[in-house]
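The following record pairs a protein chain with its ligand, 2'-monophosphoadenosine-5'-diphosphate.
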Amino acid sequence: MTITDHYAVFGHPINHSKSPRIHRLFAEQTGQALEYTAQDVPAEQFQKAVSTFFAEGGKGLNCTVPLKELAWGYADHKTERAQLSKAVNTLARQADDSLLGDNTDGIGLATDLIDNHGLDLSGIRILILGAGGASRGIILPLLEQVPQTLVIANRTVDKAVNLAAEFHNRGPISGCGFDDLNRQFDLILNATSASLSGQLPPLPAGLLAENGVCYDLAYGNEPTAFVLWGLENHAAKSLDGLGMLVEQAAEAFFIWRGVRPNTQPVIELLNSER
Ligand code: ATR
């Protein structure tokens, strides 16, 4: 009898998640025998759902909104990148049955920007909009590319300043409010939750440098409000987070299975369907 390893994504809401599709495509492509399901898990049910999943033999979990901080608290041990991002999107059962928590969002973004879109982040001026959990998860991989500067701008200014201070020994990072944005940036990343509801932070004209790139961590079948802002502001590229989604999934798949899927055909397929 073949035993099929079980993986899942937990989140709330979860019905539109593309993760089961992505992981099934990876499994098919790499010849790995596994099943991957999606489960609607509100925050208050997380503890019970996760312990049941692993008690029943589950091998690994992805956790998405609003569970990443809870998964961080649940993991027995964590990678450094998960430790610093204070969020876990991947739990992996280890040989001794302990649970390793990792966060593959940041590396997923960096891979999409660098490998898929050919960007060189070294020496450039980067702006992140938002200072919540999504921003925290991408700071370290961006600083590792040695940009000239990394600015975090947020509606609640203190949160941007405090978040930047946490990473001050990792690179040239600072925090400010949207009103303080009086410089140009080569890469602007939207990590606010505003674009999910079609809203945009107040951004001054001329914020994006010539040949600059915009990237929304969110994605949808229609261009997000920030992707449209990028197009209106003559961005060389104005991208959404579909590539990041596939790349973070590939990194999780690698952690679980030790095999790296080819992400290109999966990104192309998902792009062709919207
Ligand atoms: P996530 O985990 O998705 O990052 P979060 O931690 O709740 O979610 O953070 C949401 C981010 O989006 C915050 O930076 C928030 O700004 P505040 O810290 O000032 O609340 C930002 N945000 C949400 N709605 C926004 C809006 N309409 N305009 C500007 N920023 C917004």
